[in-house]
Specification:
The structure is a single chain. The radius of gyration is 21 Å and the shape is globular. The strands form two sheets. A seven-stranded mixed sheet has the order 2-8-7-6-5-3-4, with helices on both faces. The chain has a five-stranded mixed sheet with strand order 1-11-12-10-9, sandwiched between helices. About 40% of the residues lie in helices and about 15% in strands. Helix 8 links the parallel strand 5 and strand 6. The mean pLDDT is about 95. The protein is α/β, with parallel strands linked by helices. The protein has two domains: about 140 residues, Aspartate Aminotransferase, domain 1, CATH 3.90.1150; about 220 residues, Type I PLP-dependent aspartate aminotransferase-like (Major domain) (Aspartate Aminotransferase, domain 2, 3-Layer(aba) Sandwich), CATH 3.40.640.10. It catalyses: L-aspartate + 2-oxoglutarate = oxaloacetate + L-glutamate. Belongs to the class-I pyridoxal-phosphate-dependent aminotransferase family.
Length: about 400
Amino acid sequence: MPQLSTRITGLNDGGSDGWDVFYRARALVAAGHDITELTIGEHDRRTDPTILQDMHASAVGGHTGYAAVPGTDGLRDAVAARVAERTGVATTRDNVLITPGGQAALFAAHMAALDGGQTGLYIDPCYATYPGTIRAAGGRAVAVATTPDTGFLPHPRALAGPARGARSLLVNTPNNPAGRVYPRHTLDGIAAVAEAHDLWVISDEVYDTQVWDGAHLSPRALPRMAARTLVAGSLSKSHAMTGSRIGWLVGPEDAIARAAELATVTTYGVPGFIQDAAQAAIARGTEPETDVAAPFRRRRDLLMRVVAAEGGEAVRALPAEGTMYVLLDIRATGMTGAAFADALLDAEGIAVMPGESFGQAAAGHVRVALTVDDARLERALRTLARFARARVPA
């Protein structure tokens, strides 16, 4: 067999892709075990039937051929209007590329920003695909570490050194896995570093409808930042459309035109009937988005109450201002996040993600996805707290 490229064999830098516990939990479910899965951001509700009806009507109506690669004019206009309304930044269809999900948008953004061997920065902890996405685009993935003591918020001083010679900086607010909504002063610091070092800021904003405290602010909305910011968005989280693979990249017109050329030689667009359904979903306004988000706010509050009451010194919930996740600090047990997650799955049939899946900054933590019904979540949290308390060294 001919040798594989170093680009594809090096996506995970010789290590795991971070999803080991998730894969093991799914294998146990397939074997008939009763596992409470608190791993990935998959809603416990399905896509709204009206969206599926729109999708079906479009497909039956004939929109099953090749769709325009940058996206249909109708959907690009709808996304542009949505972005302009929510950020205050003038946006037209020429600023929008429709992609098969937010992940494809992140890849396209890094392909636009990086030449081979150039440095792409990302904030640690991060969504597990980030470093691999940078490497897939030919870049050198460099983590900028944060700490639990600062709530995992990046500080300009920590960014300034790695930014020298870099070409891009990937940020995520509301943040997965930490649940933080970046405040204005954090984003101003990021913008200052980006301007000083002529960086592209690549902003993953797929959780923009899941904000519990504070307000979402896009880096693209800051002064002078629209010309150097590429924003990934999606309907996966806002409309429970994870499997529909419908997202977008927003940025300067020339960058979007070039990214559309990339789409021509990679994805070749998104099915037209899915785009039509997405356009109709956006047209229904914010009420469906609020409805989809509501359980996660409620479950965030439930988690905070249970962990505060039963976690003792063994487990502490970090403040979660948004998203469908909460990080739990289990360092008092003396266990790594990976060891804790493996042991919890084996002993109690509860699957959580190790903090180390998201970077070394979150070592000694586990991420809980708020993706099961309230009663089952509460039982799992009480069990987790009891499990953690039993492992605190005497």
